[in-house]
Design brief:
With 340 residues, the chain is an alpha/beta fold. The chain contains ten helices and ten strands.
């Protein structure tokens, strides 16, 4: 193998079309992201068919831009990596088709990447990973605690029993009349309010590492609907602060407990909800107080959302392990972590 390995990575699992060129799994040469937020905003969420159509329009443009920005050609590449799940099946198939076509046309190996592993490996673009480590994955569809004994080894020790944290944020945002995606706005309102409504902290004292946000969501909806029926005005800042305080306290408490049971060197907080300032602040402060020797890594905001750079970082590990795919590789919308 050559000393420098360049991987072209493609990500299209939801509503971002992204292509990146990554050097040795840790250096970003380019990371093009074409967002579809404005198209989905009017629907209050992602419409799969609309997402797929946008991917078709953007994918070849993004590939060209990624290569140009990195100042490389297909001849400089070692492999092509692509997200094959989990995600929206139609959206995944667009990225898969493009990756297969590019790999086949240029005689390059194809690397299949789990989207959630990509979120974890976004941290590798910040600094080297040290094992064993713990990862808290918080996104629109996933809330999981993942223990990693070594590169490419994923053991889910806790996950949500119902709604993911990101789903709860989206639902609460709709109730508050906020535009999609509402996580950033709820975070902003929360910093201006106080936890006055004391929403439940589900499963926080149970002897496991699982999560549940369905009850919190229901409590929030019931409170706002009852107030509406009585003609009572509720403070949106305090509502947001109370909701976020519940989510953050549960996430932080469970994660810190896991890091005490599983002695780890690093904690990675990754996924779209990792962009939440309230979560970042609380996690950092709690670690300093309770586990001062634990290294916390939270990727920068541009790497918390879906992007191809994180897929390229994860793909480098897969390449070292010779985990390649043939042209029969298919999308797996409900792909789970493989225990390696």
């Amino acid at each position: 193998m050559s000393e420098t390995e360049l991987i072209l990575a493609i990500e299209s699992s939801c509503d971002e079309t992204s292509v990146a060129v990554i050097e040795n799994g840790e250096k970003i040469l380019s990371n093009i992201v074409a967002s579809q937020i404005n198209s989905h905003k009017r629907f209050g969420g992602v419409v799969p068919e609309v997402a797929s159509r946008h991917h078709v329009e953007q994918i070849t443009i993004c590939i060209e831009e990624a290569l140009n920005e990195a100042q490389v050609t297909a001849n400089d590449l070692r492999a092509v990596a692509v997200t094959y799940g989990p995600g929206l099946v139609g959206a995944l198939l667009i990225g898969l088709s493009a990756a297969k076509a590019f790999a086949w046309a240029n005689g390059l190996p194809l690397i299949p990447v789990n989207h959630m592993a990509g979120h974890i490996y976004a941290a590798r673009l910040v600094e080297p990973l040290e094992f064993p480590l713990m990862a808290l994955l918080v996104s629109g569809g996933h809330t999981e605690l993942v223990y990693m004994a070594e590169d490419g080894s994923f053991e889910i020790i806790g996950e949500t029993r119902d709604d993911a944290a990101g789903e709860a944020y989206d639902k609460v945002g709709r109730v508050l009349g906020l535009s999609y995606p509402s996580g950033k706005e709820i975070d902003h309102l929360a910093h201006q309010g106080e936890d006055t409504y004391n929403f439940p902290r589900a499963m926080i004292k149970e002897d496991n590492f699982d999560f549940s946000f369905s009850g919190l969501k229901s409590a929030f909806i019931n409170l706002t609907h009852n107030a509406e029926q009585r003609g009572e005005a509720l403070d949106h800042n305090n509502l947001a602060a109370s909701f976020q305080a519940s989510v953050v306290e549960v996430l932080v408490t469970k994660t810190i407990k896991a890091c005490k049971v599983y002695p780890v060197k690093q904690l990675i907080v990754a996924g779209g909800v990792a962009a939440n300032q309230g979560l970042r602040e609380k996690m950092s402060a709690t670690i300093q107080a309770e586990l001062p020797d634990l290294k916390l890594i939270v990727p920068p905001l541009r790497l918390c959302g879906d992007n191809a750079a994180m897929i390229g970082a994860a793909a480098h590990v897969e390449l070292q392990k010779h985990h390649l795919a043939g042209m029969s590789l298919n999308a797996n919308p409900s792909l789970a972590f493989q225990h390696i």
